[in-house]
Amino acid sequence: MDGLNTRLKREIWKHLGDNPVPEELKSLLTAVSASYDNYEKEHALLSRIMDLSSEELFDANTELRKRNDELDRFVYSTSHDLRAPLTSILGLLQLIDLSDSKKEKELYLKQIKISTSQLDNFIQDIVSYTHNKKMDLVDEEIDPKEFINESIEKLDFMPNSSRINKEIKIRAEVPFFSDAQRLRNLLSNLISNSIKYYNSSLKNPFLKIDFIVNPERAIILVEDNGIGIKEIHQSKVFEMFYRASPTSKGSGIGLYIVKEIVEKLGGSISVESHFGKGSTFIISLPNKYQPPEKIPSKKTRQ
Ligand code: ADP
Questions:
Q1: pLDDT digits over 126-171, tens only?
Q2: Which listed site, 11, 18, 46, 59, has its alpha carbon 20 to 30 Å from 126?
Q3: Residue from 73, 122, 197 to probe ligand 1 pocket by mutation (most atoms less than 8 Å from CB)
Q4: pTM exceeding the 0.70 threshold for the entire prediction
């Protein structure tokens, strides 16, 4: 019998050997063969589904492990970074109590101010981390120039900010739409890093921001001629609580938040840096701008 399912053929052969199939069984065997075929198709489909779900399970498990590991580090570093400035403030307050000198008291107060702003920066980082995780994405029109100027102005208070020459270049073919709050946090982190890690021995420290918008995406380049990042650290600076040098001035969470924001917005980020020369952060973000639909001319409407 031709065209029978191979598995069924094997079974028949086991029973009949080379003997011909009895005529009265032929229609029954054709029906059995069809159910064998059906069974095999369903079996193949099920195995494919199982492969897929075990792949998904594996991915979900890897993601869960990563998040769990991050949570551990988060709890450890958060408690450390919150306690360090607080204990320093408590110590300084005791010193103020003990001191009779006005000059000394002023110095301690200045240090308290520094510790308080460290604490505030850290809490702000945690707030923007949570905002990025929890809040829905919003698409709104963004004026890049106004946006960047605003972010720079807000960081004017940082030490040495006034020494750094800031240059902004915008090239926009179309309006840019994205999530304003997330973009604000992203820019503020990158700009404040360029200020924090500027090269104090240079006569002309600079920060250059290029913002290029096309219908599909915005490319943002944040370039500085600061202290730069050693090659061995470059792939790790986006990790949670990673500091690339012992003189790092923060908690090491800023670039992690930046990367999380970029991922949430569906974009990508990379860094090119030369130690002692400077760094450029390159961000690509999708443009959520929807061009107005063309209104058909009178002729085509008729
Ligand atoms: P931090 O709060 O320590 O500044 P970030 O996550 O923002 O943490 O950055 C991680 C590390 O990468 C920093 O500790 C610093 O060593 C390095 N870094 C980030 N931006 C720059 C930059 N523009 N120039 C030089 N080093 C940088």
A1: 888 889 988 999 999 999 999 999 999 999 988 899 999 999 999 9
A2: 59
A3: 197
A4: yes
